[in-house]
Specification:
With 270 residues, the protein is α+β, with helices and mostly antiparallel strands. Helix content is 24%, strand content 20%. It is built from 6 helices and 10 strands. The chain binds a DNA duplex (16 and 16 nucleotides) through loops.
Length: 270
DNA sequence: AAATTCTCCTGAAGGC
DNA sequence: TGCCTTCAGGAGAATT
C-alpha cells in the first residue's frame, strides 16, 4: 500500500526512463478511477515531452510542456516500466507510451487518480492545503507541538492528517509512535514539546529508512522494475499483535483508531 | 471548528 | 471444495 516511501521509490524508479521522453501514445483501458480519467487524455498528452518527475505528498507529478499530469497510487496502485509490446494484465488500466517503452499503471482497487492539470500544480485544490513534507525543513517537533495545542484527537490521527503533515500513512504512523514511545491513542493536545521533538525525528527516520529499502511491500506494492520493497522485515509493530515487543518482550497490542488498525506496546508506549 | 463517518473497490482470508 | 462474509485502506466528501 503506497505511502510516502513507496511513492518516492516509484518516483526515483521511473524518472530515468521517462525524463526528456516524448509521449507517442496513451492507452486508457479503464476510465473509472477515483475520478474518471479524462476522455481527451490521449490527445492532450501525445506529443508532449516529460520535463521533470517530482513528488508532493503521495502525489506523483509529471511536468509536461503544457501542464502537469498528476498520478496517485491510491492503496493498490503501482507504476512499472515495460516494453510496449508486453501484454497488459488484469487491472493494467493506463499505458503512457514513449516509443518502445511504456509507463504502465496497475491499480486493482482503482482508488488511484490520473489527472491532467493546467494550473500550477501547487495551486490546485488537491495540493494547495497540504501540510509540510516530513523530510523537508518546514517539519519539526516544534511545528507539531504548535499544531496540536487544544486538540483532543488521537496523536496517530493527527500525524496521519495530511493538512498537518503529508505522507505518514497507517504503517509508518504506528512505527514512528513506537520508536518515540508514545501511545497512539493519546490526545494530541496532551503531549509535551519534548516528546514531539522525538516523534518528529522518529517520523523522519522511519520514512528515510523505508525509502532506502525501496518501500514496504505487504500485498501488492511493486517497484518500477517489479521488485517488492524490502522494509516490511524492519517493521517493529505493524500487524504484529500478540508478538513480543522488540524492546521489552511484552505482547504487542492492536487497537482501532478512526477505523484504522493500530499497533503498539502497552509497556513501552504511554 | 473539529472530529467522525461514509465512500469508492478488489483480493485475501476466514467461516461453515 | 466452494460459496459467502468480512476486512483492509488513501483521502476527499459528507455528517455530526
Amino acid at each position: 500500500m503506497p505511502e510516502l516511501p513507496e511513492v518516492e521509490t516509484t518516483c526515483r524508479g521511473i524518472a530515468p526512463f521517462v525524463n526528456g521522453k516524448v509521449v507517442t501514445d496513451v492507452i486508457v483501458r479503464e476510465h473509472r478511477m477515483r475520478q474518471p480519467i479524462a476522455e481527451q487524455l490521449p490527445q492532450i498528452l501525445s506529443g508532449q515531452t516529460v520535463q521533470a518527475v517530482t513528488r508532493r505528498a503521495k502525489y506523483l507529478l509529471l511536468q509536461m510542456d503544457r501542464g502537469h499530469l498528476l498520478l496517485h497510487l491510491g492503496m493498490s496502485g503501482s507504476l512499472r516500466i515495460v516494453d510496449k509490446e508486453t501484454p497488459p494484465q488484469r487491472h493494467d488500466h493506463v499505458d503512457i507510451v514513449f516509443g518502445r517503452i511504456t509507463l504502465r499503471l496497475r491499480d486493482p482497487r482503482r482508488f488511484g487518480m490520473v489527472l491532467w492539470m493546467e494550473v500550477p500544480p501547487l495551486q490546485h485544490p488537491l495540493l494547495c492545503k497540504l501540510g509540510p513534507e516530513p523530510l523537508g525543513d518546514d517539519f519539526s517537533g516544534e511545528y507539531l507541538y504548535q499544531k496540536s495545542r487544544g486538540r483532543r484527537v488521537a496523536i496517530k490521527q493527527l500525524i496521519m492528517n495530511s493538512l498537518i503533515v503529508v505522507g505518514v500513512g497507517n504503517i509508518y504512523a504506528s512505527e514512528a509512535l513506537f520508536r518515540s514511545g508514545i501511545r497512539p491513542t493519546r490526545a494530541a493536545g496532551h503531549i509535551s514539546e519534548k516528546r514531539y521533538v522525538r516523534l518528529a525525528q522518529a517520523i523522519r527516520s522511519v520514512l528515510a529508512e523505508a525509502i532506502k529499502q525501496g518501500g514496504t511491500t505487504l500485498r501488492d506494492f511493486q517497484q518500477q522494475d517489479g521488485r517488492p520493497g524490502y522494509f516490511a522485515q524492519q517493521l517493529q509493530v505493524y500487524a504484529r499483535q500478540g508478538e513480543p515487543c522488540p524492546d521489552c518482550g511484552s505482547p504487542l497490542k492492536a487497537v482501532t483508531i478512526g477505523q484504522r488498525s493500530s499497533y503498539y506496546c502497552a509497556k513501552c508506549q504511554r
